[in-house]
Fold this protein.
Amino acid sequence: MIPADSASILPDPASQAPQSGDAAYQAPRPAGERALDCFLAAGFERIEPPILHAAAIFLDMSGEEVRRRLFITADAAGEELCLRPEYTIPVCRAYLASDKAGRIAEYSYLGPVFRARAGQVGEQTQTGLESFGRLDAEAADAEVFSLAMEAAMAAGGGAVLTARLGDAGLFDAVLESLKIPDPWRRRLRRGVARGLSLEAIFSRPSQSALAQPGVLAALESADHAGAKALVEDLLAIAGIDAVGGRTPGEIADRFLEQASLRSGPPIEPEKRAALDAFLAISGDPDQAAIELRRLAHSAGLTLSAALEAFERRNGFIAARGVAIETTRFSAAFVRDFDYYTGFVFEARDAQAPGARTALAGGRYDGLARRLGAPHDIPAVGAAINLDRLMNGGER
Amino acid sequence: MAGGNGAEDPFVLAVPSKGRLQEAAHAFFARAGLELIQGRGARDYRGAIAGLPGVEVAYVSSAEIVGQLAAGAAHLGVAGEDLLREKALDVEARFELLSPLGFGHANVVVAAPKTWIDVRTMADLDDVAQAFRAKRGERMRVATKYVNLTRRFFAEHGVADYRIVESLGATEGAPASGAAELIVDITTTGATLAANALKPLDDGTILRSQANLIASLAAHWGANARQAARDILARIAASEEALKSREVRARLPVPAGSIVEAARARFDAVSAIGEEADPHGLVALHCARDKAADLAGWLLTKGAERVSVAALEQTFAARNALYDALERRIGAAEA
């Protein structure tokens, strides 16, 4: 996925990003530069990845829903290109194409991103930071979050941001500990990310009603090989030619999965109750840690590793001096992108019009592999939309 | 574009420039007594309607018709609902679909390989798409030329793990060639899908489309344009109404007044010649085509000797429902 001549997409040190007299981004730049200064002072080297990218990269990572937000064009050969809608993927690509790939590298950026939104200017200024390759995950999480908060406050002229924290690692650990079957894990993570209640998630049909009840009954005690043979026989009897896509083995596996889920409620009541109690936990992060330990004990969940990481991160964040009273943890805060693997956060400027999310970030260890790296690479980052800070567009 | 005294741009009716749609559109307008006259030679893209001097007919491709309506360059146009909903944003706010035209039928459907015997609904598809991505790290690919319709429909059904592969022809071959796992395409009989070992999903019909007479709300609706629209729509309404109706006539041994009332209540029939019922028992009623036989039978039980049922050519009414629908959207003319 990374182009062969990818070295050329790294910035030439001599021609780095726009200078301050540049007319193009005049209005928001000074605020952006105040933010950028925070990142540079902490050793996050400035990077300016290309503006044009293959549209497929963003569509693959984020899904077709982002298509309507993209400014799409085509090159001479007809390949779909788009203007970058954000920095994380372009920065990650540049990192992977560099000689630092797989090792520690920390970048900051400031520049335009392009998103089509009805009634709004399509070009917005974003600044942010990305940290790759660090193994002290919780310290890196805390540093990136704290720097982003500091930078946003500096850019917003002293604005006070209220932040919400979440932890996809904790969420996954709870599902793992409850031994929730695989298909339900996917549905739960997606449903919770979309703000659905457990009731709504569990009541949503995931298969057609009465889907081949005879087949499912026949498969209730079958194994993979037996199920695969049955599916192949069914297709042969019906005279259906195989056409691309999924193999009879994959179809058999889904039948097996459905057969195993067929009897009884999707999840036992006590597991459901534990899940409900977990998702309801929100508030002060330290208080949340106490409640999480209490829940783990009473529901018999083995969360120690995830909980220790959670507490360690809270400690690092507190040590960095982020105002804890403006920071809330919410167990139900997860993102609908599977490459977000741990800490997630977002913050808004309560005084800004509409108070929309102005800062967002998290740990995305899974992204590098999605972009072509041979394995996961620890990564955490944050982006600030300057236009959404009270003073972002003015100074 | 200001109204008032200045010369008003001509009223533009956009119709398809080629193929079956053009023929069907011509036939449709002809049935309404509107003869479209194409300019000299088949390559002339402007025409007129016989007897309506204020009207210009623009012959353009179907996709372009949607564009012209959206831009307000055409006042009325004939286009498939599938293209309108694919190409234009905010359809409800910017267009008025005045009347389905009864041709150009095509359903836009989601179709999967027949081998996917475990997939019958969009919920199945969502489940399979998630598992596909979890297992392969890639999204399931959907070949289609209906990028926007697909995206909206999949979003409504909560399906997120897919990628669109734009296809501009022979979409149904994409799964067999390995270019995509499933397709979204138009189908009329399903035969093409079946021939390519594909099946539509039970709840995968995105749109039941047919050609529509569409009004642009972005066009300038001056006095001339309104008059032209009123003339055209009156004739279309008259022939559409006639097509759906039958005239039922009989002579009854009693004054017709109570019979007309009862026929209205029982058969939704109206007096063909106005409100005043004939005191000598002559009744002439208009009713829906499928109720004509029942109405005739009922008149026989009321003492009629013979009942005649006749097809109608055109039925003009003081109230023109099509123009009324348009005027509700563009506002009444300035005084």
In short: The longest helix of chain A spans residues 137-155. Chain A touches chain B through 40 residues (CB under 8 Å). Residues 1-26 of chain A have pLDDT under 50 and may be disordered. The radius of gyration of chain A is 24 Å.
